Batch of 2 targets.
Target 1
Amino acid sequence: MLNIILFGPPGSGKGTQATNLIEKYGLLHISTGDLLRQEIKDETPLGLEAKNFIDKGLLVPDDVVIGMISAKLDSNSNAKGVIFDGFPRTIAQAEALDRLLEFKKAPINIMLALHVNDDALAERLLKRGATSGRTDDQDPAIIRRRIEVYKNETSPVANYYGTQGKLVNIPGEGTIEDTFALLVKELE
Ligand code: AP5
Ligand code: MG
């Protein structure tokens, strides 16, 4: 199995690049943000709980997202490999993921961390918010909070994989094609 974490702040291009990478490498894409938005659309109890956090730009509780990831891995046990997008976002999530993958004897191979400056992130997200309907993309204050939450709660996860020798930093301010080429070069 090839298990990749695509890491980076909100708007850094995780979803965009994951879509291209799964096509090239035949991997399963697991985005906790996409899974949560589907739960909200389906008006499930989990979705209703998650919406309170997402609309404020805060993280959904660890047990909720860890449960979702565990179920998703169980229902895709034949996958050639997985691109994790937007997960893990806390050290507790990273530890839980390591335990789940240890059970499958298929650890994380690499964390690819995208780097984009805050102004460019906010600009990308606001632009998408004008058309996407994503409630958390429309208010500059919520976008700023998402970036702050990333810095405070999520960025330590990079060090967690760094100490395992798995972290690779990738500049993400070029075009979508430029960034894709850098990611492919690293994986090849
Ligand atoms: P999530 O859905 O994961 O959102 P996010 O990480 O905040 O950021 P995005 O998905 O918006 O950005 P992205 O990096 O995927 O960039 P994208 O490719 O879309 O999470 C949403 C919320 O759910 C969280 O705030 C939290 O509440 C909750 N949540 C999710 N996972 C959780 C977890 N594990 N634990 C707890 N809570 C969790 O690109 C963004 C835009 O930029 C697009 O319009 C794209 O076209 C454009 N773009 C991309 N690349 C480029 C480029 N190179 N140049 C110009 N534009 C570009
Ligand atoms: Mg995304």
Target 2
Amino acid sequence: MAKLIINNEAKKSTIAPEIYGHFSEHLGRCIYEGLYVGENSDIPNVNGMRTDVVEALKEMKIPVLRWPGGCFADEYHWMDGIGPKENRKKMINTHWGGVVEDNSFGTHEFFELCRQLGCKTYVNGNLGSGTVREMSEWVEYITFNGVSPMADLRKANGHEAPWTIDYFGVGNENWGCGGNMRPEHYADEYRRYQTYVRNYAGNQPIQKVCCGPNVDDYEWTKKVMETCFDHCEPRFHGLMDGLSLHYYTLPETEDNWDIKGSATDFTEDIFYQTLKRSFFMEELINRHGAIMDQYDPDKNIGLIVDEWGIWSDVEPGTNPGFLYQQNTMRDALVAGITLNIFNKHSDRVKMACIAQLINVLQSVMLTDGEKMIKTPTYYVFHMMRHHQGASLLGSELVGSGTVGKDKNELPKVIESVSEDADGVITVTLTNNSLEASEEIEISLTADSTSYNVKEARFIAGAMNAHNTFDQPEVVEEKDFDAFEKDADGIKVTIPACSVVTLRLAK
Ligand code: AHR
């Protein structure tokens, strides 16, 4: 039997709620239909935001939402998306599917959505094709509480009070779709643009996110940190609060974006390969983190993994530019593994946004007109929400072995553990095996025998089990009862291909 030893005598880093964040781009049916249907839609909505989706996201405790892209962000001109809707520019979304973007969802709509969700805001600015002035004026429009041209324009457009920007991305993927820049060039541009992302008097300071590397481009991290990290006087609030990292898991090929593999039809080998590739996140955090440590040993700058998840082939018959893919138990395990890794590195990882919220890539929900279904990934975020804001506890798992062969070998069980403000301990575990359940004896270094399981939930199923609009409940979060307490601790048996959450309390 494997053993999980939890050190509940020392609290480690706080798990930022934002690690459980999400990303919404003007791409396919993410914004339009997925989140926003307009005030006149037959689909129940509040101010245009669909009610079923908003309610489900609140239940999942969505902590932060990134918008408007993605590659779209570096082509987005925010003034196109304000004022009377009938006057807003209609244009082609050149990046994604060549469809008409009517700009009916813009700044006011984004902040209304976040108000309904009760989540923090992460706005991504346009450095690739926008001007410094444009970026600066957007921040003024959104946050300035006084008399100024942009604040007056906001008021004229119907919003008297300013909003709060919690995070601001100064460009996106500027090594690629955001301008194809060299790190030296981007870093200088970052220094200039971020200067005008103003913190107006009385406002909570905006956390500025600098564009970080693509996957394992360690050179980018080094050069950008070298130029942008600065020991500023606190009154200037530093040059950067976060450095982004993007990493997508392609199931079938290392980096051939033409053959990514089906979302639902795959072999056991591909299943393990996908899990192993998602486990690579740990190495990426360690290695980029080590470079960041050279400049920022106190870990004040967050590594912001603001795009991650499985990127598979689109569902047959759908617009290739819409990136619409199904979501199976394999996605659930990728989410569970990755979120456990983030928790364990929460001293450096301060925010992460899975791509993307709805109807695009590894989504938590899918819609078809008025129908909405939750994906296996949704249930993982829901079960793991208890970690948000809790303190990481040290945990050691011994004797559970590995799964997958050769280059695809990875630990059979991956866990993380935290303790919340009420002393409740949350243990989340993934069983990455397709064949075998795992018996685990859980003990704590202090007061072990006084803990009981107060709540336990899980999802499990075949590797490609998924929900459809006809069968929306094939994979669902359920009560978990395969545990018992004896003199040695709490014994659990976690089923093959599952994600389990246990809540322990005295
Ligand atoms: O999430 C889809 C795209 O992937 C984003 O627009 C871009 O930032 C990344 O390449």
